[in-house]
Specification:
heterodimer, A: mainly alpha, 9 helices, B: mainly alpha
């Protein structure tokens, strides 16, 4: 089977998965809780339809693909914002501090993205390379913000609800792999483009499966069962007392 | 160079997501560990520290102080972990149809959130003290805040008929 054929099959497969995810969002009414994520998924479906229809017309396909990619990245950032709100809204004590750090992270990532554009703009000749560079900068901000979300919730010891975690994980995995591909594709020859397209297709399909899985599988109940043994506590206290009296 | 940085960042992100999935699985069974606040308070007692400083030679004092900081840091980590568990447990109570339970759960979550932030500050202060043992940066607010958390969790347990009383006893 040729590479082009595999990519085509992956494309069809991802459209089927996107339809399934859209139906799952509607059936579970998750779109009410996650309007930005629902908009992102419906837009991806729309993008897949448009680009599939325009595939034979290379110029129209190029324009449609990159315009849709730009809108997709903006919607992806809206999803990140939505996840941030979902994770921190029940915790007013942490929200204020987290918002400040989030804003600092946004500024730092935008500056890093500007640095990437500035350093690489000299070698990025032609429209395709310029578009790839812009995509790289945008994905960099997206990946950085999702990393911030995971790190900050870990530092603050927050528990993610299953579907919120799934949305962040799927988006993060796809954005990270896409960041690697758009960064490398500009530096490699056209022979490797097929491989990058394949990797991108696989990562997007994997993210769709992650989203479907986390949306449809019911949340597991957690238990705080392990109550301490008194003997352990006494041992610990004795050790500390000895240390203090030493 | 910048390309390497970007690729490294993307790879770090992938590793981070993998670790998040792993730690989420581990979180499914959370463990609470008790904190002896009296012992912790004694560890942070500055008069005690001054006494040791006066009585011992500097090298011995530095050694003992660093030892105390290591133990204190373990206490802080334990407090932070318990606060995180309380945050998670209270989230369900916050959605209770009984207004009193919901408002108490909200108070508990607020306190637990504050404690998490203070634990971060405390770890930072302890790290500084570890590097420079002559410094005295007591994480003084942590003990009364944690005591207050315990009381609120106990109150929440009294309001609920479920398992919040053992939770209060466990922390």
């Amino acid at each position: 089977m040729s590479g082009q054929l595999i990519i085509h099959d992956l494309w069809i497969g991802s459209i089927v998965l996107q339809v399934a995810l859209a139906l799952a969002l509607l059936a579970t009414r998750a779109w009410r809780n996650f309007p930005a994520f629902a908009a992102y998924i419906f837009f991806c479906l729309f993008e897949a339809g448009i680009t599939y229809a325009l595939f034979e017309n290379k110029k129209a396909y190029f324009c449609a693909f990159w315009i849709c990619e730009a809108i997709g990245i903006v919607l992806g950032l809206a999803v990140v914002r939505e996840i941030f709100t979902k994770v921190f809204s029940p915790h007013p004590a942490l929200r204020k501090l987290a918002t400040i750090i989030f804003r600092v992270a946004v500024i730092a990532l935008v500056l890093l993205a500007c640095a990437v554009i500035y350093v690489q703009s000299a070698s990025a000749t032609g429209l395709v390379n310029a578009v790839l560079l812009a995509a790289e900068a945008a994905r960099l901000v997206e990946v950085g913000l999702i990393m911030f979300l995971f790190l900050s919730s870990s530092v603050f010891g927050l528990h993610w609800r299953q579907n919120v975690f799934g949305i962040a994980l799927g988006l993060g995995m796809f954005a990270a792999v896409d960041l690697i591909t758009v960064t490398l594709i500009g530096h490699m020859g056209s022979t490797t483009q097929l491989a990058f397209k394949l990797v991108r297709g696989i990562s997007f399909s994997t993210s769709l499966l992650i989203w479907l899985g986390y949306l449809l599988v019911p949340e597991r109940a957690t238990s705080s069962g392990e109550l301490p043994k008194k003997a352990q506590l006494e041992q610990w206290n004795q050790a500390v007392t000895e240390l203090i009296n030493r | 160079m910048i390309t390497v940085i970007v690729i490294a960042l993307a790879l770090c992100a992938v590793v981070l997501f993998y670790m998040a999935v792993r730690s989420r699985r581990k979180q499914a069974v959370q463990s609470l560990r008790p904190v002896d606040l009296t012992a912790f308070h004694t560890l942070l007692d500055r008069d005690d520290e001054l006494f040791i400083k006066e009585k011992l030679p500097r090298s011995k004092f530095v050694h003992i102080k660093r030892h105390r900081i290591r133990v204190a840091a373990r206490y802080v980590a334990r407090i932070a972990s318990n606060a995180s568990t309380v945050l998670h447990e209270s989230e369900r109570a916050r959605l209770s149809p009984t207004p009193e339970v919901a408002s108490t759960a909200e108070q508990v979550m607020e306190l637990a959130g504050q404690i998490r932030v203070q634990c971060m500050v405390a770890i930072f202060k302890l790290s500084l003290e570890y590097a420079m043992p002559s410094l005295q940066l007591t994480p003084a607010m942590l003990v009364p805040k944690y005591q207050s958390l315990r009381e609120n969790v106990r109150r929440l347990g009294d309001l609920q008929t479920q398992n919040a009383v053992p939770l209060a006893n466990a922390i």
